[in-house]
Amino acid sequence: MPATSRGDTLLNDTAEARSRALNQFLASVELKAYKIAQAGLRHQDDALDAVQDAMLQLARAYSNRPEEEWKPLFYRILENRIRDMQRRRTVRGRVMAWLPFRRDEDEEDVDPIAQAPSPDLPPVARLELDEAMTALDGALEQLPDRQRQAFLLRNLEGLDVAQTAKAMGCSEGSVKTHYFRALQALRQKLGEFEQ
Amino acid sequence: MNAGEGDPGRTTQLPSGLEVRSRLILEEGLSRIDAPTRSRLNQARQAAVAAAARPSLLARWLGPMGRQALMPAGAAAVAVLVAVFVLSGGHQLTASVADNPASALDVLDLVTDDDAMNLMEDNDSSFYEWAAAQGDGSTQSGGQAAGGATT
Fold first, then answer.
1. Share of chain B above pLDDT 90, in %
2. CB-based contacts of B79: which residues, under 8 Å, 6+ apart?
3. Same domain, A17 and A96
4. Which of these, A25, A24, A48, lies nearest to A38 by C-alpha position?
C-alpha cells in the first residue's frame, strides 16, 4: 500500500474515532444540558435552541481539543448562550411592553403527556415525587442565575469545583460561594428534603 | 444545623440529605423528558457531529496541498509578529498584570459578582469556616456529592 494511502486511512480512522467520541459525549450530556437550559430560560424551545447551539459550537471549534476538556467547555458555551438569550429576552420584553397588541411568547402550552408521572410508582409515592419535583423546580427558579448554575452543574452534572469554575468562567472560590449560598437558600425553602 | 456542606463542624465531606434528595429528583426529571424533546436533542447531536466531521470552508477551498503550501508562510508571519512585539517593548505592557495575574482575576471576579459582594458585606463567617474546612478536599466533596449523577 502506498504511503499516502496508508496515511489517508489512518487519518480517516482517527476522524471516525473522534466523531464517535464526540457523539458519545454529546449523548451523555444532552438531557442534563437541556434541563439546565430549561431551568435558566423556562422555555422549552429556547432551551433546545441553546443546547443545539452549544453542541454545534463545541463541535466546530473545540472538537479537536482533548476529550477531558469537552465537558467544562461545553457547559461554558451553554452558560454563555443562556445568558445571551436571557439578555435578548429582557430587551425584547422591554420593547414588547410598549406595543399595544402583544402576545406573551414565553407562555407555552403544557404538554400533558410530557408531564405525565412515571407509571411504575405507587400512587402515593408518585404524588410525593410530583410535589417534590414541583417544589424543587420552583425553588431553583427563585435562585439567582449564578447560584442555580453552580448548584445544577455540581449536583446534576457532577462537575467538581475546578470544572464548575471553568464552566462558569469564575474562580473556584466563587463557585464555592455560589454553591454554599444555593444550598442555604434551598434548605430554607425545602427543609423537609432533609428528612 | 442540618448535616451537609453548610455545617462547618463536619470532618468528612459527605453530601447532605438535601443534595442527595435533590439529585434524585432532578434525575427523575430527566427520565420524564418527553420523546419529541429527546428526538430534537438527538437531531441536534447528529448535526453537531456532522459539522465536526466537515472541514472548514477555508480548508475545503485550499485542499490538502494548499494547506501544506501555506504552512511555512503562516509560520513566517507568526515569527515576524512575535519579533515586532518583542522589539516594540510589548512585554512592558503586560508586566503589571504578570506580577500577580491570579489576584487580579480574583478581584475582577469579586467586583463583577453581586453575590460575592453581598457575601462580603454580610460578613458570613460560617461560609469562610466551611470553605476553609473544605480545603483541597473541595473537589472530592463535589465529586462525592454528585458522583452518582454522572453517567
1. 18
2. none
3. yes
4. A48
Contact present, A181 and B130 (Cβ < 8 Å): no
Three-state secondary structure call for residue A17? helix
Smallest CA-to-CA distance from A18 within A51, A61, A54, A65 is with A65
Q: What are the sequence ranges of the domains in chain B?
A: 15-54
Q: pLDDT category, A15, cuts 50, 70, 90? A: confident
ipTM of predicted complex: 0.77
Q: Which of A73, A102, A131 is the last residue of a domain?
A: A102
Residue A111 lies in a domain: no
For residues A89, A91, A92, A94, the Cα torsion angle rounded to the nearest 10 degrees is 120
**Residue A108 covered by a domain:** no
**A110: in domain:** no
- Cell numbers found for residue A14: 482517527
In angstroms, rounded to a whole number, what is the distance separating the alpha carbons of residues A116 and A98?
38
Q: Tell me the pLDDT of chain B averaged across its residues.
A: 67
Total structural domains within chain A: 2
Tell me, yes or no, if the pTM score tops 0.90. no
Same domain, A96 and A178: no
Least CA distance to A61: which residue of chain B?
B52
- C-alpha cell of B123? 460578613
Decide if B99 touches A, using CB distance below 8 A.
no
More confident residue, A51 or B12: A51
Cα–Cα distance measured from residue B105 to residue A104, given in angstroms and rounded to the nearest whole number: 40
On whether the CB atoms of residues A164 and A153 are closer than 8 A, the answer is yes
In a domain, A86, yes or no: yes
* Cβ-nearest to A176 among B19, B105, B138: B138
**Record: contact B48-A58, CB cut-off 8 A:** yes
The CATH code of the domain that includes A127 is 1.10.10.10
Closest CA to A143 of A192, A191, A84, A188: A188
Chain B residues within an 8 Å CB radius of A113: 34
Domain that includes residue A79, residue range: 1-102
d(CA B151, CA B148): 8
